[in-house]
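Hi there,

I know you've been waiting on this one. I reran it after we fixed the sequence typo, so this is the corrected version. Both the input and the resulting structure follow.
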Amino acid sequence: MNTSSHVQAAEPAEGCASDVVDAGRVALAAEHLPRPRDVAETADVFSLLGDPNRLTLLLALLEGELCVHDLAALTGQSDSSTSHALKLLRAHRVVATRRDGRRMFYRLDDPHVRMLLDLALAHTAHTGGGA
């Protein structure tokens, strides 16, 4: 947890009525901020989800595991492009694999990934961006 003992007042921020800093609220927020490394890793996950091709692969996996060839056919990407995207998602522990002979099957790594996707879809539908 990061805390700062010195908070400097600057120009009033857009939406703020004055340039007075509420030191108590700032300290409380600072206490609850994750470590910078955790923030960076979370930002990495969001950047992975921010790519439409990778996001489509993940959404396809909501219903269960699929092999690279099936994912490529489903998403309209090449096997090579699909494999590359899945390798990146696997490196960040967003997807996991299971080998069956020569075929590699991919699935969402854990329930948190599913929750992120479900929440993002619900938010899009709620804000009118969904179908």
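Quick highlight: Confidence is low (pLDDT under 50) at residues 2-7.

Best,
R. S.
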